[in-house]
Design a protein that fits this description.
heterodimer, A: about 450 residues, alpha/beta, Rossmann fold, Ubiquitin-like (UB roll), de novo design (two linked rop proteins), 3 domains, 18 helices, 13 strands, B: about 160 residues, alpha+beta, Arc Repressor Mutant, subunit A, Glutaredoxin, 4-stranded mixed beta sheet, 7 helices, about 45% helix, about 10% strand, elongated
Chain lengths: ~450, ~160
């Protein structure tokens, strides 16, 4: 079965010739009309539309946006803040970059609509430090919007005021974790906060109720405000509504971004039909489906079980190629859809070396607050790097696994899981390669082998 | 603190973005570093005073975030992405090319012998679909294979020569 057609609602204008990131171009394409119409409605109506839409957060966890908004403490008397999480850092993910660089007003409109719905007067866009150019583009776009009275005091005579400021990070991955992000925005080290009690919806920025939403999520809110929650559920599949943007990288013919109705495309269709399959003379070996912390899938393995289709339970027996690319199906086969970053590896890759690359990332990015994560991620890196560059021993595989198994569930934030899942899943799926690596290493490497660590 | 008048102006403006002054720590450090090239001890004391903080509050932030430098680096900053998607399509070779071209080693504060560049092997730059990617100062370069790395190096060298 060939792949369905792309349905670009968020990436509609990305890489479109003649589409520019200034206000004039955005207005020419109907910009800020949805915001104007939203101001005619009751804020609660907008929240209900988002709830009805079933929109799930696009930052990685897939938490329902309407539920997140529903948890906000509205009785505290304190101001409510909204933070746009634009700290796109999960390896393999590169969708928000395109929205901010090429269509910043879409994000600003989505943000103002979300702020209006939640009675927010002050929003911050927390963008990663390396995107200095992106920060400038956003600042210019906000200035244009402010000059046109789409942002700022008494927007278009509505009596509603809302300000947006851009805040740049400085190279720390952990700032993508929402409570770490809040600490960072408060001017501190980005050490995530413990939950409870520090749920952002209650005790967030400056101990006030705070909403943290991903860039793409807020763009979906704009679409929902325009077309209604009901219409959004018609795109995609139940519980996986709307579109998903897949960021494909690594060993495929056509890497890049692709937007499809959620759950309508399988891994095989995405990698073969859309991305053109493996590079010449190569075969697919492994794929990480949702950013580098998602558990790896091995081509050739089968996933079996029962799943719900409508009201019935039916058996499924899938290969990697058959798995639908939605949150629930990927979770069912033991991994996750995460942020949509699909990293593909072909048969030229040695999995021990690929893991050593990933471990170096997590060890560099641990904030250092919790001992199991700080020490564990460092030891996983030390062991896997030694295996590749130094002396590999028969017991290394088991040692790696024992370190990884001692981290998850013992840390303040989900980084503990994120850093141990690669090691656990690589070891589980490619046990043969790990246990014989000390032998494999003795053979000379092909001249064109990819250096990964 | 010796900074350009417009830097002082931008510092005063950015502090107004936040109800709590401490929030301006990162923006101030960025502005100081863009102007002075790195964060000196004097800068830490100055930022602390400006935001009504203790110097340790600023120092702990500087040492936490990889983008802040405690000493001067090369005039141009070449950041090559090291992480998996870039590595899969040759990121390590790209980095090696820059190292060879400028006779230096990649490192957060290493400077080439001519003082021209700092090559840094950094973690994911979030442009994995056009890997390998390289950030030179604030401009992203995509699909930087060895040939393109050589070409970019030549360009940096030519710009350096033109300045002399």
């Amino acid at each position: 079965m060939s792949a369905p057609a792309q349905n670009r609602i968020i990436f509609k204008h990305i890489d479109e010739p003649d589409y520019t990131n200034d206000l004039a171009c955005y207005l020419k394409h109907g910009g800020y009309e949805v915001m104007k119409r939203s101001f005619q409605r009751q804020p609660q109506e907008l929240i209900d539309e988002v709830k009805k839409s079933g929109l799930r957060g696009r930052g990685g966890a897939g938490f329902p946006c309407g539920v997140k908004w529903g948890l906000v403490d509205r009785k505290s008397g304190k101001p409510i803040y909204l933070i746009v999480n634009a700290d796109e850092s999960e390896p393999g993910t590169f969708k928000d970059r395109y929205i901010m660089y090429q269509d910043p007003h879409q994000l600003i409109e989505g943000t103002i609509i979300s702020c209006f719905a939640n009675n927010v007067k002050q929003a911050y866009i927390y963008i990663r430090g390396e995107m200095a150019e992106g920060a400038r583009i956003l600042e210019k776009a906000i200035a244009e919007a402010r000059a046109a009275n789409f942002v700022g005091p008494n927007i278009l005579g509505s009596n509603y005021s809302c300000e947006i400021f851009v805040h740049r990070g400085a190279g720390a991955y952990i700032c993508g974790e929402e409570t770490g992000l809040i600490e960072s925005l408060e001017g501190k080290r980005a050490n995530p906060r413990i939950k409870p009690p520090y749920f952002p919806a209650v005790l967030g920025l400056y101990q006030c109720p705070t909403i943290v939403n991903n860039v793409e999520t807020l763009c979906h809110v704009k679409y929902i405000a325009e077309h209604g929650g009901e219409a959004f559920t018609k795109i995609g599949t139940p519980n996986n509504t709307g579109t998903r943007i897949f960021c494909v990288s690594g060993h495929v013919q056509r890497p890049g971004y692709y937007e499809f109705p959620a759950g309508t495309i399988t891994m095989g269709q995405l990698l073969y039909d859309v991305c053109g399959g493996p590079l010449p003379g190569r075969t697919f070996k492994a794929v990480i489906p949702g950013g580098s912390s998602a558990k790896v899938m091995r081509f050739g393995e089968r996933y079996k079980g029962k799943r719900k289709v409508g009201a019935d339970m039916v058996d499924y027996d899938w290969g990697v190629e058959d798995v639908p690319m939605d949150f629930d199906s990927l979770a069912m086969v033991g991994t996750m859809g995460g942020s949509g970053g699909v990293i593909v590896m072909d048969d030229s890759v040695n999995m021990v070396e690929a893991l050593a690359n990933i471990n170096a990332f997590y060890s560099h990015e641990s904030c250092g607050q919790c001992t199991p994560c700080r020490e564990g991620s460092l030891w996983m890196k030390k062991i896997s790097t030694r295996m590749v560059h130094g002396d590999a021993r028969p017991g290394d595989a088991a040692l790696l696994k024992s370190v990884a198994d001692q981290i998850p569930g013992r840390t303040i934030c989900a980084f503990g899981e994120a850093c141990s899942w690669p090691t656990q899943s690589f070891y589980l799926k490619f046990k043969d390669e790990f246990e014989t690596y000390h032998e494999t290493k003795k053979a000379p490497k092909p001249a064109d082998a990819t250096v990964l660590v | 603190m010796n900074l350009k008048p417009e830097t002082f102006q931008r510092i005063d403006e950015v502090i107004t973005h936040y109800p709590v002054k401490r929030s301006a720590t990162l923006p101030l450090l960025h502005l100081v570093q863009e102007d002075a090239g790195y964060i000196s001890d004097e800068a830490i004391d100055w930022v602390a005073k400006k935001l009504e903080l203790e110097p340790i509050n600023v120092l702990e932030v500087v040492t936490f975030y990889p983008m802040f430098k405690r000493k001067p680096i090369g005039r141009r900053h070449i950041k090559v992405c090291r992480t998996l998607s870039c590595a899969l399509v040759g990121g390590y070779k790209t980095c090696e090319t820059f190292e060879k071209e400028f006779n230096t080693h990649a490192g957060p504060t290493e400077v080439s012998p001519d003082g021209e560049v700092t090559v840094e092997f950094v973690e994911c730059l979030a442009s994995c679909g056009t890997a390998p990617v390289v950030l030179i100062d604030e401009t992203l370069h995509e699909k930087v294979d060895c040939a393109k790395a050589k070409q970019l190096s030549d360009q940096i060298k030519a710009e350096a020569a033109a300045r002399k």
